[in-house]
Structure formats: C-alpha cells, structure tokens
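Changelog-linked ticket: zinc ion example.
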Amino acid sequence: MTALKPVGFFLAGLVCVFCFSNPADNNSELKKISENVYVRIVSPDSNAVGNAGVVVFERAALVFDTHFTPEAGREFLAQIRSITSKPVRYVVNSHFHPDHTHGNQAFNDALFIGSTITRRDVLNVDLASMNRAVATAQGQLEKLRRDTAQDTAAAQGQHLRDLKSRQDYLDTMSRQKIIPPVVTLDDSLIIQDGKSEVKLCWLGSGHTEGDTVLFLPREKIAFLGDLFFNEAIPNVQDACMLDWIKTLRETLKLEADKFVPGHGPVGSRKDVETFLGYLEEIKSLVESAIAGGSNMEQATREIQVPEKYSSYKFKDFFPSNVQKMFSEIKAMKIASSPMEGPPKMEREKAK
Ligand SMILES: [Zn+2]
C-alpha cells in the first residue's frame, strides 16, 4: 500500500492556533463586557478555537467572528439566543482564517462583512485549499477501494479503517460551506442602529493582509481579531510582521480601554502594548543576529523566547516568528540597498 498523506488536518496550516483535540472542552459562555456587548473567549483545545463577540443593537445583533466549525457556530448562536431574540443581521469576519470563519453558515441570514482583502483570501486561499484537499481525499478513497478489493484478508483491516477515515473526512467537508464577505471595506465602515455605533476599520497589514478591527467608540471597546494574541505567541504563517508592528500602533490610537484578542483573554491597553513589545523585541533580536552574520538557521537556533514572555502559550510557533521576521528584514535590506554599480576597483579608477 502506498503511503497516504493525511488530509484530515489540511486546514491546520491556516488555523491561527493548533487544532483542537477535544470538542467537549468547548463550554465557554458568553460574557458581558459592557451594556449590549458580549464576548465568547474559548479554549484553543475546543472546536471553537478562536474568540468571538456579539453587539446587540436596538433592532438587530452583530456577530464578530464565528469560530472554527459549523457546530461551534451553532453553539455560539444558541448562546446568543439566551441573551436576545433579535435577528443576527450582521456577521463581521476579522480575517480569512477558518477558526474565525468556518462557523459562518450558522448565521445564514446575516449580511457577511469583511475587508476586500479578506474576501479575496477566503476565495483564493481557503476555498481553494479546501477544494484541493477534497480532491486529494477523493483520489485516495478511490485508490483505497481498488487496493482493498485486491487485498489479502490480513491487510484488509487497515485498509477498511483508512477508507472509513477518508469517507468521514469527505462527509465533514461536504457539510462545510465557505462563505466570503459580501459587503467589503477598504478603509472603514460605520454601522449605526439606534444609539449604538460600530466602526469597522482596516488599519494595515499584520496577522494577515486583511485584518479588520471593530471599534465601539461609546463603549471604548476594540475587537482586534488576531492582530492581538493575548499572552500567546502568534501564528505568523500569513503575517506581515514588520507591518504588524505599525498596525498595532494604530490600534492603540483607538480610544478603547478593553481590547478583545483573537486568542486569549480580554486585555487592557497595557496588554496590547506588551504584545506590541513582543513583536518589537523579536525584530530587534533578529536585527542583531543578522548584524552578527547569522543566517536564518543560526538565528532560529540562537534566539529563544525572551524571559518576559516565557509564560506565553503556543511556544511551538516561536521558531516561525523568528524565521518570518528574518526573511522580511532580509528582503527589506535587499530592496533598499543601492543599485549595484561597477566593481569598487573600477569606481576608484574612474575618479
Ligand atoms: Zn488567524
């Protein structure tokens, strides 16, 4: 039997944190953080994976992010029903990662809103990735069926287990709908309903190119999505780390005192500043390593999680943080270096 590549976790690369291990761990309740504003802070080990929030307007409710699976989205909706009977008219996706969007289908009647870049990435990256994974699984399933038919009785047991696993995976995927934003913003968008107002802003690239922030000026609350990992090392797979530093500084200009992260507990302004400090420290450590002549491999080995952040979760992401920063700084140096002129000796002669 040829070795089969597991496809069951194809989404893991896109998910902001590691795949959940036990759906039963997902028992987070909605927590009120202001009049009509609620958050659902979830465990990364649950089937929800990423945090979400709700704003209850005069006539309708708005949801910010929808968790990792349709089931988690439905559990979220059931909890919303315990606080309001108003229709969920708006769903804002902070960015395209599945742990913030794959619960969308639980809110089928809502208007889906996100940045123009997030719409692009949902369609070109997430949907494309799912289509590729499904095609791979279908090919594997057909091959397994052929192999199983020719198997000896002894080999059939494992093949039948593999067949079931591929079929379960395809069944799960067939229930998953990828829903992109249908209303998109390039810079900002204001939603008003009664006395409530929310401002959606794209403040620059960071965790992805398309991160959208939700700001409630009256309540002084900002939902930052994955621009803010509170007490955790961030996933930087789709990040622009140097831009992230600038964009996070922009978020600190919002007159908010509660900052809701994509992962981790609700934070204060100081917590966002601490996370910004983490990114700045990685930049500084990588710059020193480059100045000292280290290549990426050496820098990854030499730079360890600074003591100040030793309590952070998701430390397995740390090497990728160093590598991403290394490649961005190197690329910037190459881009900003003067055009190569004639060799030095020839320049001397030309004087
Ligand atoms: Zn993310």
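Closing comment: Example verified and attached. Residues 275-336 form one domain. Residues 65 and 322 are 28 Å apart (CA to CA).
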